[in-house]
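User: Second chain of the day. Same drill as before.
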Amino acid sequence: MAFRNRLTIGQFILGSTGFLSLYIAFTNISLAYPRLIWRSADFESRRVIAESAWQTEEEAQTRGDALHFEYGFPNLGVLWIPYYQNLSGRELYQTIIVPDEDCDRFLRQHIHKLDPNAYCFTPSNRGLPANRRGV
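Assistant: Same format as last time:
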């Protein structure tokens, strides 16, 4: 089998057994972005963008997939709002973007691609204020 014009992508994923596994995927270079792999994460004290809120985790992931494939945002997550003490406590799943750079600058640059009500905030269980700011 020839793999001309193909790109190999390796991803390390911590499995439920606690062992680190290597997953290799082959994809055509013509594809814009590899498929997202959703996993639990702790966003404690990270400055993130709240893009939209949903009744189910699946709906939040579907919105994240759309942001990823349509606009190329690589760092996305789903946050359960009641998990963090400094948030509203509403029983919703939040689609979030975790920018590598300054959150407020990233939001200003990309707000035209996002829900116009998107905002930066800091989820925390350590007594930090949410420090919510929009554009």
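Strands lie at 6-14, 20-28, 48-54, 76-80, 93-97, 119-121, 133-134.

User: Great, on to the next one.
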